[in-house]
Specification:
The complex is a heterodimer of chains A (about 300) and B (about 400).
Chain A lengths: L3 H29 L6 H19 L7 H18 L13 H22 L14 E4 L2 E4 H23 L1 H11 L1 H6 L4 H24 L10 H14 L4 H21 L7 H15 L3 H15 L1
Helix pairs in contact in A: 1-5, 1-8, 1-9, 1-10, 2-4, 2-8, 3-8, 5-6, 6-8, 9-10, 9-11, 10-11
Chain B lengths: L1 H24 L1 E7 L6 H20 L3 E3 L2 E3 L1 E7 L4 H13 L5 E3 L4 H7 L2 H5 L3 E3 L14 E3 L4 H17 L7 E8 L2 H16 L4 E9 L7 H10 L3 E5 L2 H13 L6 E3 L7 H7 L7 E4 L8 H14 L5 H20 L4 H10 L25 E6 L3 E6 L15
Classes of the chains: A mainly alpha (about 300), B alpha/beta (about 400).
Chain lengths: ~300, ~400
Amino acid sequence: MSSLLPVLVNSLLAAGLYATMAYGLAMIYGVMRIINLAHAGVMMLGAYATFTLFTRFHMDPFLSLLVVVPLFYFLGVLVYRAIVRRLPRASAGPSMESLLLLFGLWLVLQNLAYFIWTGETQSILTGYTMKSIEVLGVRVGLPLVFVFAASAASLLFLNLFLRRTYAGRAIRAVTQNRDAAWLSGIDAERVSAAAFGIGTAFAGAAGTLMSTMYAFTPDFGRSFLLKAFCIIVLGGMESFTGVAAGALVLALLENAVSAWTPIPTTFQDAISFTLLVLALVLFPKGLPGLAAGLSRKVTAR
Amino acid sequence: MIRNSLRAIIGIGCLLAGVSFAHAQEIKIGAVLPITGKESKIGGAYKQATELAIKEVNDAGGLDLGGQKRKINLILLDDTSDGAKSAQLVEQLCAQEKVDAVIGGYGSQLVQAQSVVPERYGIPYISGGAGARGIYGRSKWVFGTLSPVDVLSQTQMDFLSSLVAAGKLRKPLKIALITENTEHGKDYVQGIHDYLKAHPGTFSIAVEESFELYAPDFKPLLTRVQNAKADLFMADAHLEDFISMQRTYTQMGLTHQMLTYGARGSDAAARKALGPATDYIFASGWWSDLLPYPQVKAFNAKWKTATGAEPQWYHATAYETVRVLLTAIRKAGSVKPDAVRSALASVELKDSILPGGVLKFTSTGQAVLPFVVTQNKPGDKVDIVWPREAKTGDPVAPIPR
């Protein structure tokens, strides 16, 4: 039986990866109440963009974030202005039209990738891909450590951006109440475009980071998308700290089940979905909602 | 005027009759392959090899059928790697195109979907791209040239036993058995279990786990492997999972006396993705261009001239699938479905380039041929290390740390 420390270290690092996949999805849902089914397609495109920069210009994958992030931001704004803003707005939740449209976009991106890069399996091998270091006595892959660092930096950036800048505050205002924000003079359309751009940029960045760890084809991202859904439901769909906490809970559960129970690892996905169902039934507002509820109970006593 | 019109009509009639006679002289072969979509890489390779095999026959004047040379008309359709579409296209070939035989696709999932159609139309069907046992034996019209995956894992066990007999590995040996949760993976596991039952004493299983395709994190799974302290690591995985798993395996610093990912190992994409981390991995394959048969050397040269590239195993199996079908049609002496089916059931392609040199089908319609075991060596070198009579180099065992 494994001891506690390896489980904690592995879970923390896996959570970094999971959170990276989910930030973009949470940003778009928070502002527009749209579940971006094209998220996996954008991650895949991010991986291929990184691959192209690596093979054509010998650019290090982590350095290529400097190109991928702005490029995908503008791609997101373009997609928003061209198609997403034409969708009927549903205040209660994602409309069927948005789900169908973004699923269609995913298929288009997939076929575009087949056309450009073919279905051949691609990967990126750098000098550090196979390297590992010891973290608290646990041997872990160097790319995963870098991904964790990027994820932590993203969380810090998102929190500072949303709290300290006008654009960030405007995004939060639109997230909380779109009409009230509009009445206060905030251009909700512009904010939505920016949020879709940021969400797309984060998805592209997630693709870049994952390309350092996985081989990929145009089908890449499907299994990650399902995990990302589970994480944003756990995280409360609107809070990035909640998303990070959701990622940690999922990673902890997966690693703990594997280390301390005889349940076969093939049930890893079943764990994610059981957690998803439990979260939706027991605390639909996610972990932040659960924490707020508990805190209210303690205060009442 | 009327006479001229009559002449024209008669002329056109003769021309059309001539065209239809010429069509009647053709042998119509249909093929449904995944030329686009997720299986497009190997599907495209199957297309290339199928077309080459047919071109060779047509360039030689056609297939000799009862003393008459008949050209082959290949109708090739793309199923976009979609199972439902794949079955529908096979149906289209049988019902609308009225083909004389169908060549099936690549990938057990797609071939499984296709394989229910030939029975409905009574058309001979042969696939060069599906090794799952479950596909065969259900319809007398379905044939396949890929040997079953359980034979693949049993061949690997034979190879490992030979290393024990040679004193390179010391028994008892504990196996970590890790497979994908697919028909392919299950057949692989079945092969190992059958072998252990038939040959008790040398090997035992220390840990047995499966994983879903394209798993995001292999760390929990490999932690179990680490804790099991096995001597041999035997996995069966698709290329993407092989790359991800072997990266995590290397980063975790895992070592075993021998290491395999089933049929994966010497793929160019994997060596590019993993570099020296693929050294000493052994793999079983349906074919190798290193096989020391004269017909393999001739095929290698022919393929290189035609395409400018080295042939891979899937080129060879696709090529042989066409050859064995055409041999059966020639043997049948006609394109009558029953005659071709019977000929396929009893055909023996004696100059086959596949391992063993003779391609024939068992009673289920699936060929059961020996596998070759290759081992990667440093510097991108690959050797056939099993069977003994085909080996091009000595196996390195145990893997040097």
